[in-house]
From TrEMBL:
The keyword Cytoplasm does not apply. Pfam families: CarboxypepD_reg (PF13620), OMP_b-brl_4 (PF25183). This is TonB-dependent receptor. PANTHER family: OAR PROTEIN, TONB-DEPENDENT OUTER MEMBRANE RECEPTOR. It comes from the Bacteria. It comes from Psychrosphaera aquimarina.
């Protein structure tokens, strides 16, 4: 458009170069744009601009506008040649233009025919795209091959500024302080995100990917359902040239280190890893070419793999698991250039996987006995088809339909007969005679007690249009709809579908509503089943105008309107929110008018849907009950490990197993969960090869959605008398008023609409605020070396992490323990788990010779904050079933006049126990490229965590063994470390 300018230096080489470009809104295609000028920088209107894909022959032609600008939208990723012609001028051709996701800008200088001119030569210059305020990282397979990056999408995302690795129990990346469950991942335009709880996504082998776009903020109205970031990936495609190749990657056990083993505070083993092992070998066989030259192309890949691991489940007493996985991946991409104006793409892949775990139990002497085999299934069949039509030079349309599936089935060979039984007294220091390794005393283990038959399927449809309106406006608009269905049938192993946990009980504390009169040990069961098929429909309309206000100022004005409809197992709507208006505004200013620097600002709102996990758990036929008994004793027989004494209290019913009245479980005035964002930044070209930038980001989460118990609101509002407890959990907005179908006459049955004020409910509003400053310096690859350096200062604070909870490893999206009781939130405000105050990333590569290259990837970041959590609240007593989710209270050892213990409220809010140590990691690689027997061959060695740094990444934050009694066994002990050193050897060939 007309705001695109070039510096004198850039104009001098314009006939031979393509301005590489940035990251405008794009799904799985690229855009080529530019300006046609003469030697005096005067624009040339009416020039004919033709592009041709160098590998497929795909060709398109447009006429330059009155301001000399031209634009080719929705292009296949690849290498292009640009040719400009006009009567009275010499034809100009620019070759080897790499079009990636987003926009690539190429300006051509034309010379009058017959006029003598100085020959101009040059090479590619990477400049600033001054027409967009979006922030993202564009990186392709060629660049990634030069640097040591683990072969997974998360590791690619972590190269981007503002991203940090999430809790080791979740995996994934945190974008801008958001939880790891708030991101979206697309492959060729198909949303493959796990919509059950937001964790993970369908995946393809690293070698199938062609390029990645990691959107970290300010992304366009085309994208939604994310308050974190977006990873937008495109797979490889075929070309006219037949090619075939293969590769093999192996991570041998002999070149892998283990994380340290850890002893408890009393000197016994807490976690034992010395005997752990893991090895992995994967291969890729691929072929590509043309079925019909210049028209129909294919790319196919087959990925056999063999992964095995062995690890101590507890403490080197013979309790161990042996995992194995050997399912092969297959994928295919078909591209059909029906004509110059019509294209069709088809993608299909299967990432089905089955992990088989052989479970062994110890005999107390370090030996073991085979116990069972557990099978976890994941992945599924995925496909999409996309049509692109260049209806006119100014109007382009694309239509995509696809289906994505993910298996969630877990089975065990002993599921019908074995129970999980845990003796937790050892952790609380109440029974030191119990060896730590014997904490699980039943014949089921933590590896095989949870059973599920489940599958998630997504049907996605979207239409997108791009319309160039005059010289100053680019209008983009569209619609997308996803129907997400979760089938789930869950239960615990054993004849009763329950697991049992043994605890120490102290006189004066409450257990299941009963105050203990003496110190006793007690045992608690939990039986939980759920089943059904649950559907959520998510739809959105968007429109966006990229307006060239003048030569130097561009505004991107967008609006997205979203709607979510979550249904229960009977197909009835239980949570529906529509008219969620998400405005987006970006301003980009070409500061000097030469295309070499820009200042930008972006403000926007982003909504997050109610996760399908909420449908399954809250709106299903979930039966969740608990029983409490005095412990009679232990038998020593794993299949019948305990005897029961007297029952303590009545059956505790969390969920009855009946599908609830949807009006009684969701607030009628439920508002959406969203995040507001503002980004201000500046980028500049320091030289032809060096760029620098600074960026400030502020994100603020609003309107969290979670389940809350409202029993106390009946009493606080004066509706019911003290002691009324219907165990009514409601999905609502913490800190807001609630309209609910409730029990108006306190007889235990819901019968009418009620309104509880925020004061009645007592819950605080959800808060999460992220502030960050990013500094970046980068040198582009010049066939000799390249480097990218980023420093991020950030602060993430609030009382809620988001969709998941790193404090206790909870993946229960939308139903975390945070808001279950008001007292759980006392002290919850502080620095959040994804808060990393300082983060430095340096990666790059160097060509030692023409055949030998070396790469490096260095990261150092400050540690996460540390908490101290307890088992209860001094004003409410202990809630053992919730684990260590309260903040800390100490027993003073004194009693009041009635003989009740006196507790000292030691307020230790979130993040107040200091921080973990700084983590540093250096990865190196060395690649040798040569020709063997006519084959292009490459050999490479990658060494990850070269110095085997072993910084602690998570500690035991459970400060209480029993209510108001310090956990002197494991509090503060390390639970996880950064990934230890391992080596990857690889070889690849192509002909």
């Amino acid at each position: 458009m007309k705001n695109f300018k070039r510096s004198i230096a850039a104009l001098a080489v314009a006939t031979t170069l393509g301005m590489s470009a940035n990251v405008f809104a794009a799904n799985n295609a690229g855009t080529l744009k530019g300006l046609v000028t003469d030697a005096n920088k005067t624009v040339i209107a009416g020039a004919t601009v033709t592009i041709k894909n160098s590998n497929t022959g795909f060709t398109r032609t447009v006429i330059a506008n009155d301001d000399g600008s031209y634009r080719f939208p929705s292009l296949p990723i690849g290498e292009y040649t640009v040719t400009t012609t006009k009567a009275g001028y010499e034809s100009e051709t620019i070759e080897n233009i790499s079009v990636r996701l987003g926009e690539t800008s190429v300006s051509a200088t034309m010379f009058q025919a017959g006029v003598e001119r100085i020959a101009v030569t040059g090479s590619a210059i990477s400049a600033i795209d001054t027409s967009t305020a979006e922030t993202a990282l564009n990186i392709g397979a060629v660049e990634l091959a030069r640097i040591p990056v683990p072969r997974d999408v998360t590791s690619v995302a972590l190269l981007a500024p503002g991203t940090t690795r999430g809790d080791s129990r979740f995996g994934g990346a945190s974008f801008g302080g958001s939880s790891v469950a708030e991101n979206s991942t697309y492959i060729n335009g198909l949303n493959v995100t796990n919509f059950r709880n937001g964790l993970g996504f369908s995946n393809v082998p690293y070698e199938f990917y062609e390029t990645f776009q990691v959107k970290t903020g300010g992304y366009s109205a085309e994208f939604g359902r994310s308050t974190g970031g977006v990873v937008n990936a495109v797979t490889k495609s075929g070309s006219n040239e037949f090619a075939m190749g293969g590769s093999i990657y192996t991570q041998p056990e002999s070149m892998r280190e283990n994380s340290p083993s850890v002893r408890a505070n009393d000197g016994t083993w807490y976690t034992y890893r010395d005997n752990d092992s893991r090895s992995s070998t994967q291969a890729n066989i691929w072929a590509s070419g043309a079925i019909i030259e210049d028209t129909l192309f294919y790319y196919a890949i087959y990925n056999p793999r063999d992964v095995s691991a062995e690890y101590d489940r507890t403490n080197s007493n013979g309790n161990l698991d042996k995992d194995s996985s050997d399912n092969a991946f297959w994928g295919a991409k078909i591209d059909w250039n029906i004509s110059d104006n019509h294209r069709l793409e088809f993608l299909a892949f299967s990432d089905e996987n089955e992990t088989v775990t052989d479970v062994y139990t110890g005999n107390g002497d370090g030996n073991n006995t085979y116990a069972s085999t557990a099978v976890d299934q994941s992945g599924g069949q995925n496909w999409s088809v996309k049509y692109t039509g260049y209806l006119t030079d100014d109007l382009t349309m694309s239509v995509l339909y696809g289906e994505n599936s993910y298996d969630l089935t877990t089975q065990s060979s002993t599921g019908g007969e074995c129970e999980l039984v845990g003796d937790y007294r050892v952790y609380y220091g109440a029974n030191s005679s119990i060896p730590v390794g014997d904490v699980w005393i039943g014949c089921s283990t933590t590896s095989d007690y949870f059973l599920e038959e489940g599958e998630d399927t997504c049907e996605a449809f979207r239409m997108d249009f791009e319309w160039v309106l005059g010289d100053d406006h680019l209008i983009r608009f569209g619609f997308d709809n996803e129907t997400n269905t979760s089938f789930s049938n869950q239960l615990y192993s054993g004849p009763n579908g329950a697991y049992w946990l043994i605890y120490p009980g102290n006189a004066g504390t409450a257990v299941n509503g009963v105050t203990l009169t003496e110190d006793i040990d007690y045992i608690r069961s939990r039986e939980r089943t759920v089943g059904g098929s649950f559907e959520t429909t998510a739809s959105a309309f968007y429109i966006e105008d990229t307006w060239a206000i003048n030569d130097n100022l561009t505004a991107t004005i967008g609006l997205r309107n979203e709607a979510f409809d979550n249904k229960n197992a009977g197909g009835e709507t239980f949570a529906k929110i529509d008219s969620m208006i998400a405005p987006r505004l970006g301003l980009a200013w070409d500061v000097n008018g030469d295309g070499d620097s820009k200042a930008f600002i972006n403000v926007g709102r982003y909504f997050l849907p109610v996760a399908n996990n909420t449908n399954v758990r809250l709106a299903g036929n979930e039966r969740d009950v608990r029983e409490y008994y005095e412990l009679g004793g232990l038998t020593g027989d794993p299949k019948n490990a305990y005897t029961l004494g007297a029952q303590i209290g009545d059956l505790e019913v969390i969920s009855s197993g009946e599908t609830p009245d949807t009006r009684s479980i969701v607030s009628n005035n439920l508002d959406s969960m969203y995040q507001d964002e503002i980004i201000i930044g500046y980028q500049t070209m320091v030289s032809d090869e060096w760029s620098a930038g600074i960026k400030y980001t502020n994100r603020s989460m609003n309107g969290a959605i979670d389940d809350m118990i409202i029993d106390h609101a009946y009493v606080n509002s004066g509706t019911c008398a003290a002691g009324y407890a219907p165990h009514q959990y409601v999905l609502g907005n913490p800190g807001k008023d609630m309209e609910i179908f409730g029990d108006t006459d306190c007889d235990g049955e819901v019968d009418g609409w009620m309104t509880f004020s925020a004061e009645d409910l007592v819950y605080p509003e959800a808060e999460r605020t992220y502030d960050a400053i990013d500094l970046n310096l980068a040198k582009q690859w010049d066939d000799v070396w390249a480097v990218n350096i980023t420093y991020t200062w950030s602060k993430s604070r609030g009382n809620a992490e988001g969709m998941v909870k790193s404090d206790n490893g909870q993946t229960d999206a939308g139903l975390t323990t945070d808001w279950d009781f008001p007292e759980l939130m006392d002290g919850a405000y502080g620095y959040l788990p994804n808060d990393r105050r300082h983060n430095i990333k340096v990666y790059g590569s160097v060509a030692i010779t023409d055949e030998l290259t070396a790469g490096f990837n260095f990261n150092i970041e400050s540690g996460r904050p540390i908490n101290a959590t307890g088992l209860g609240h001094p004003n409410y007593g202990g809630e053992v079933d919730y684990g260590d989710t309260y903040w800390l209270a100490n027993d003073t050892g004194e009693v009041d006049g009635d003989g009740n213990a006196i507790y000292d409220w030691t307020f230790s809010p979130r993040g107040s126990m200091g921080r973990l140590g700084w983590q540093s990691r250096l990865d190196l690689n060395l690649a040798y490229n040569t020709e063997l027997m006519g084959l292009d061959t490459s050999f490479k060695i990658d060494v990850f965590n070269v110095f085997n740094a072993a910084t602690v990444t998570r500690v035991d934050e459970s400060a209480e063994g029993s209510f108001a009694v310090i956990n002197d066994y494991s509090f503060g002990r390390p639970l996880a470390f950064q990934t230890p050193r391992y080596v990857q050897l690889s070889a690849s060939f192509k002909f």
